[in-house]
Amino acid sequence: MQLSTCYLFQGLSECQLKQLIAISTEIRVQQGTWLYHENEPADQMFVLKDGAVELLSTIDDAIELPITIIRSPGSCFGTSALIPPHLYSLSARCAKDATLQAIKQNDLRNLIQQNGELGFAILTNLAKHFLDRLKETRQELKIHFKTLFKSMHH
User: Fold this and answer.
1) Checking DSSP bridges between strand 63-70 and strand 34-36, what pairing results, if any?
2) Which of these, 33, 90, 36, 34, lies nearest to 67 by C-alpha position?
3) For residue 104, what are the β-bridge partners?
């Protein structure tokens, strides 16, 4: 079961993982299929079991900007389903035939309301993940800025 390797569900008990498995559905998706689009209501999140999913953004509805390709089993995406205003921040398209665990936002919210400890663990993991990503982005910005600065002063 891929849920236990997902960063969101680290530190959960066997019992809590079983509750998550009970509300998740395994789906198979063909290459080229859109799972969701940027700014659509985020009604579910996904955990990759196998295959690959590309996350991307569009500029002026014309240019596709690839952000990342998710290939590691246990990687999750669509986490906007956990955070108000519950709108996807990127689009997701299947890059290679994939098997996913889908968890509906309403089911997850109900489970979190019934089990505060589980909700606290998931949201703490999510916050930690976003902080790590923010640090990485800042490092990348520093590198770009240094490069830009050097090229302007030569």
Assistant:
1) unpaired
2) 90
3) 44
pLDDT tens figures, 14-46: 999 999 999 999 999 999 999 999 999 999 999
Rounded distance between C-alpha atoms, residue 122 and residue 11, angstroms: 9
In tens, the pLDDT along 121-135 reads 999 999 999 999 899
Cβ atoms within 10 A of the Cβ of 90, count?
A: 19
Provide the 3-class DSSP secondary structure of residue 144: helix
CATH code of the region 2-122:
2.60.120.10
Between CA 70 and CA 80, with CA 76 as vertex, the angle to 5 degrees is: 115
Give this prediction's pTM: 0.88
Domain coordinates in residue numbering, the chain? 2-122
- Name the DSSP letter for residue 2: G
The DSSP line for 72-137 is STT-EE-GGGGSTT-B-SSEEEEEEEEEEEEEEHHHHHHHHHH-HHHHHHHHHHHHHHHHHHHHHH
> How buried is residue 76: exposed, middle or buried, by Cβ count under 10 Å (0-12/13-18/19+)?
buried
Paired tokens of 93: 């398209």
